[in-house]
Amino acid sequence: MAAITSTGLGSGLDVNGIVTKLVAAERMSADTRNSKVEATDNAKITAYGTFKGALSDFKATVTSLSQSSNYQNITATSSDTAVVSASALSVADVGDYQLKVNTLAQSHALASKAYTEPTTIVGSGSLTVNFGTTVYDPVTKVYSGFTQSSTKSSLSLTIDSTNNTLVGIRDAINGAKAGVTASILNDGTGNRLVLKSNDTGVSNSIQVQVTEAGGAGLADLAFDGSTQSMLQTQAAENASVTINGLEVTSPSNTISSALKGVTFNLLQAKPSQVVNININRNNDSLTTKLTTFVEKYNALTAAVKSVSSYDTVTKKGGILLGDYVLQSGMSQVKAAMTDMVEGVTGNLKTLTDVGIGLQKDGSLTFDKAKLSAAQASDIDAVTSLFAVIGRPTDANIQYIISTKDTQAGAFNIAISKAASQGALTTTALTFPLTVDSSNSNFSVKIDGVSSGTLALSQKSYASGDEFASEIQSKINSDSAIKANGSAVSVAYDAVTQKIAITSKIYGANSTVDVLDGSAALGLSAAIGVVGNDVEGTIDGVAAVGGGQFLTSNSGDSKGLKLLINDTLVGDRGQVNFGRGLIDRLSTTLDRLLATNGAIDSRTSSLQNELTNLAKSRTQLDARMAAYQRQLFAKFNAMDALMGTMQATSAYLTQQIAASTKSSSN
User: Fold this and answer.
1) Is position 326 within any domain?
2) Quick one: average pLDDT of 252-277?
3) Do residues 384 and 344 lie in contact, with contact meaning Cβ atoms separated by under 8 Å?
4) Can you name the residues that pair with 235 across neighbouring β-strands?
5) How far apart, in whole angstroms, are the C-alpha atoms of residue 239 and residue 249?
6) pTM of the model
7) Do 130 and 174 have their domain in common?
8) Coil, strand or helix: which one is 66?
C-alpha cells in the first residue's frame, strides 16, 4: 500500500494549523522576553545618548570659561576712532584719559638723482645702509651728524656687474629684507631710486655709505656725513601725543608704553582736538558666559529628569530611574561645582559667593548683581575661583604655567642665587679711537655660536658710546648669531673707560667670548664670564633653574613654573596656586565623556546585549524549525497509520458485508 505523504489526507486533521499553533505556543514566552529586553535596552541606549549629549553641551560652556582672560576683561573706548583707537589688557588701570594727537610718526625716505632708464648702470663697489638718528636740515640740506642704532643691524651689499643697474640695486636691497625698502619712481624727469625705512621714528632714519670700485657712479647713492648725493624726501619723525596734559613721544604710531596695559593706535594728527579714552572693566562678558553656563547646566538637569524621574500620576518611572551610572555621574558633577575651591585667597570659595546657587530641584539660579559686586571688590579672587592661576605675593615674581600634577596650595619661594647673563668687559680705552684696515676685523662667540669675521666701520670714534654702538650693531648683524636667536647689548662705562658686551639671555648657556680681534680696541681674544641659572626652592624643595625660570619637579608644586624678574635672594614670599572650579569641573566631565568612561562602557554593554539577543533569536528560529519538522514527522506518521487503518476498516467492512450477503443467500 502506497504511503500517504500529504498531511491530513489520511486522518482528515488540519495538521498544518495544529503544528503552526504548537510551534507558536512553544516560542511565545521566549519572543516576549526577547522583545521586552530589546525595547528596554534600546530605550536605555537612547537615554544614555540624551545624558551624554547634555553633558557635552555643558562641557563646551565650561571650556569657554577656562581662560583667565575671561575674568579680567578690560575694554578701551575712544570718542573718535578716526583719530585714535585703543585696546587694553587685563593689567590696565581703569580710568578716563584726554588725549591729543600732535604729530604722527613717519619713516625716513631718500631719493636718488634721475636716471634715463631703470636698466641704467649706476656703478660698482660696496653699499652699506645703517639705521640710526640723522641730524639733517631739509631747508639748507646740511647733514650735521648721525648716531647709529645699537639695536638695528646694518645692511651691507656688494654691487658688481650682476646687480649694478638701478633695477639690480633695488632688487638686491629688497632681497636682503633688512629694514629698508627700495623702489623705482619715475617723476617725469627720469627714474629715481627711492629708499624708505620700514620703521618709523627719528631713531630709524637711513644712512647710506658707499665705497666705489672700478669707476665713479655708485657714490651718487650716498647719504652720509661727507656726501649727501641723495635727497631727503621725507624726514624721520616720532609720533607725539598729549595724555592728560603730558607729552609722550614714540617712534611708532602704535604706543603701548605710555599707560600700563593700554595700546594706542594713532591714525590722524589733530593737535586741536581732544579725544576721550575710557578704560573700563567689562563685566558683561563674564556675566554672559556664566548665564550660558547656568542655562546649560539646567538643561542637563532637565535631560536627566526626563529619563530618570518618577511620575506620580502614571505611577511609572523613567527608563534610567535608579540607574547607578546616571546617579554617580550627576553626583560627581554637583560635587565639582559645589565643593570649595582650594588654593584661593579671600572670601570667594564657592559658586554661591559669586551669585550662582543650587535650588532644591537641582537647577541653578544666577544673581548677576552679586557677581558684579564680587568683581568690583576683588577681581583677582574671582579669577582664581574659576581659572587655573598662580598669584605670587612678590611683584617681581611671575607665574608662568603649571601642569596637571600641580596641586592647589600656597608654596613658599626662596632664591639662593639670582640668574645672570654672560658678559665680557674690554680693557680700558681712550677716545677718540681710530679704526682702520689694520684693526677693524674681529670675531666673537655668543651663547655658544661663533660669528663670522666682523668688520668695524673704519673711522675715528669720538666717544665710547659711539664705539659701543658700532660693536653692538656688527655683532647683532651676524647671520649665525641671528639664526641662533642670540643678541648682545654693548655699553660704555665712562668711569672705568671699559666696554661691556652682555648676552641678552640669562643662564648657564649665556656666554660672550672674543675669538679674535685687536688688543688696541680692547677686543683681543678673551673668555667672558658665563651666566648663571637661577637657583632656589619652591615649597621647601630644590627647584630646577633655567635662566630666570624656576620650575618645581617634585611634591605638591610639581610642574609649577615661575619667572624671577630681579636679582634679589632670600625668602620671596609665596605663590598661591589654585586649580579653579572650571579645571576641576572639566576633569570630571572629561572622565564621564571619555570613550572608556562609565557612560560609554554601559552603552557598549547594552549594545553587546542586543547583539547577543539577535544571536539568541537566530538560535530560537533554528530550534523552532527543528521542532516544527519533528511535529510534522510525528503527525505524518500518525496520518499514514490512520490511512492504513481506514483502508483496513474499509476492506473488513466489505468482507463482512459480502459474508453476510452470502449467508443470507
Assistant:
1) no
2) 95
3) yes
4) none
5) 5
6) 0.69
7) yes
8) coil
pLDDT given for residue 9 in this prediction: 58
Amino acid 488 reads V
Nearest to 153 by CA among 461, 480, 460: 480
Q: 288-312: buried (b, 16+ CB within 10 Å) or exposed (e) per residue?
A: ebbebbbebbbbbbebbeebbeeee
How many Å is the Cα radius of gyration of the chain?
45
User: Which residues span the domain enclosing 449?
Assistant: 421-527
Please tell me whether residues 218 and 80 are part of one structural domain.
Answer: no
Which residue carries 677716545 as its cell? 431
- Residue 436 and residue 458 in contact, taking contact as beta carbons nearer than 8 Å: yes
Q: Is the pLDDT of residue 11 over 70?
A: no
Confidence of residue 28 (pLDDT cuts 50, 70, 90): confident
- Phi and psi dihedrals of 495, rounded to 5? -75, -50
Q: Is there a domain that residue 309 lies in?
A: no
Q: Is residue 323 part of a domain?
A: no
Measured CA to CA, the distance from residue 409 to residue 342 in angstroms comes to 7
For residues 152 and 568, the model is more confident at 568
User: Which residue, 106, 116, 128, 143, is CA-closest to 231?
Assistant: 143
Three-state SS annotation for 551-613 = ECCCCCCCCCEEEECCCCCEEEEEEEEECHHHHHHHHHHHHHHCCCCHHHHHHHHHHHHHHHH
Mean pLDDT of the region 459-470? 90
User: Per-residue pLDDT for 67 more than 50?
Assistant: yes
Task: Copy the grid coordinates of residue 223.
Answer: 647719504
Q: Are residues 172 and 208 in the same domain?
A: yes
Say yes or no to pLDDT of 359 above 70: yes
